[in-house]
């Protein structure tokens, strides 16, 4: 078995290669090939579908529970404010710059190194499946959600996202609604008591003022925000409808279906969800993964940002090197020592958990 130091150096080298290989969401075929090459070099059999690549520990046993290790290798397109080449891995002052270095390349290579460390261990009480997934940034149909049908029942998961290696034990879900408020079209010069723009005002006020009863200890209340309004095409015509877009960040006290049912009961407008699968997620503080992290001095918190946790039905912990505030920023970077610490902490947490 390779030493942790060797695995760490190989992880950093892989991250540099990933940075210098385009992997925009839904266009990750070349980084998937790099990950395949890494598995091959470590003598680990793997499977691939579309741009998702996954592997199981050497002594996989169907009678044991299964732990998922997951992070993504797709990126957003570079921020226009970049002053460095986003597709060049640049090391300066202990920082590794490059697109996807922080979100979530550092997490991905750290989990790959961790998986390789445990791969041949014959005494594991859990199976481990490692999935390097695609289309996370776009919530695409060919990401982690498409792989789940190929995997055994998952009992718990660590999803690698930049959390400064603190324990995100809950994550808000996302529900986006298209709301259509209808009225009667007419000439603007005529009296019209059924103007859809005016009809939309109480609907907007309801979204602004309504409070869902259940408040999460980790995530706080459900948050609803009207983010887009569209109606009318010319000044002298009252339109037939006013269209709203509502962004809803759902806490772990509700499913997206429950939130939608409450809204439909309260409003008479036409309400169409864009998707229902991006649910909130959580893991109990008492869970062994969380307790192992706490014992190592890690703190717990609730995360407002969305990740591939949203497509999992098992209990999951979001944890990884890097800082979420650097994600999607210009001149994105991760500290080299964050990767080193991340691999060390991942291995310690799993060792204590097992």
Task: Give the SSE map.
Layout: H1 4-19, H2 29-41, E1 47-49, E2 52-56, E3 66-72, E4 90-92, E5 95-97, H3 101-118, E6 127-133, H4 144-147, E7 156-159, E8 167-171, E9 173-182, E10 186-187, H5 196-209, E11 223-230, E12 237-238, E13 241-250, H6 256-266, E14 270-273, E15 281-282, H7 288-295, E16 300-303, E17 315-318, E18 333-335, H8 336-353
Parallel strand pairs: 3-6, 3-7, 7-17, 8-16
Antiparallel strand pairs: 1-2, 2-6, 4-5, 5-18, 8-15, 9-13, 9-14, 10-12, 11-13
Question: Could you characterize what this model shows?
Answer:
- The protein is of the alpha+beta class and 354 residues long.
- It folds into two domains: 4-171 and 280-353, Zn peptidases (Aminopeptidase, 3-Layer(aba) Sandwich); 173-273, 2-Layer Sandwich (Alpha-Beta Plaits), CATH 3.30.70.
- Helix content is 29%, strand content 24%.
- It contains eight helices and 18 strands.
- The chain has helices at residues 4-19, 29-41, 101-118, 144-147, 196-209, 256-266, 288-295, 336-353, and strands spanning 47-49, 52-56, 66-72, 90-92, 95-97, 127-133, 156-159, 167-171, 173-182, 186-187, 223-230, 237-238, 241-250, 270-273, 281-282, 300-303, 315-318, 333-335.
- It has a six-stranded mixed sheet with strand order 1-2-6-3-7-17, covered by helices on one side.
- A hairpin with a 2-residue loop joins strand 1 and strand 2 (52-56).
- Helix 1 runs antiparallel to helix 3, helix 1 (4-19) crosses helix 8 (336-353) and helix 7 (288-295) crosses helix 8 (336-353).
């Amino acid at each position: 078995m390779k030493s942790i130091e060797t695995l760490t150096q190989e992880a950093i080298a892989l991250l540099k290669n990933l940075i210098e290989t385009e992997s925009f969401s839904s266009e990750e075929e070349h980084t998937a090939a790099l990950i395949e090459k890494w598995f091959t070099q470590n003598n680990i059999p793997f499977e691939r579908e579309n741009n998702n690549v996954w592997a199981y520990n050497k002594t996989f046993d169907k009678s044991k529970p299964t732990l998922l290790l997951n992070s993504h290798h797709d990126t957003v397109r570079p921020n226009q404010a970049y002053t460095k080449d986003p597709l060049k891995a640049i090391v300066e002052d202990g920082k590794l710059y490059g697109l996807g270095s922080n979100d979530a390349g550092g997490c991905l290579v750290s989990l790959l190194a961790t998986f390789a460390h445990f791969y041949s261990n014959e005494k594991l009480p859990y199976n481990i499946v490692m999935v390097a997934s695609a289309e996370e940034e776009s919530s695409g149909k060919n990401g982690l959600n498409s792989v789940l049908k190929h995997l055994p029942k998952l009992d718990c998961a660590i999803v690698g996202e930049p959390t400064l290696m603190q324990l995100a034990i809950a994550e808000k879900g996302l529900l986006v609604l298209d709301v259509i408020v209808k009225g009667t079209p007419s000439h603007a010069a005529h009296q019209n008591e059924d103007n859809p723009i005016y009809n939309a005002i109480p609907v907007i006020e309801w979204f602004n003022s309504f409070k869902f009863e259940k408040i999460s200890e980790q995530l706080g209340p459900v948050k609803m925000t009207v983010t887009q309004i569209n109606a009318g095409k010319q000044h002298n015509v009252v339109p037939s409808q006013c269209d709203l877009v509502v962004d809803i960040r759902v806490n772990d006290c509700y499913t997206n279906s429950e939130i939608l049912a409450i809204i439909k009961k309260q409003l008479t407008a036409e309400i169409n969800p864009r998707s229902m699968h991006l649910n909130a997620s959580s893991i109990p503080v008492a869970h062994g993964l969380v307790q192992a992290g706490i014992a190592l001095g890690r703190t717990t918190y609730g995360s407002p940002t969305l990740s591939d946790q949203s497509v999992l039905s098992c209990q999951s912990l979001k944890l990884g090197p890097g800082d979420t505030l650097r994600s999607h920023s210009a001149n994105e970077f991760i500290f080299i020592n964050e990767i080193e610490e991340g691999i060390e902490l991942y291995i310690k947490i799993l060792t204590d958990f097992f």
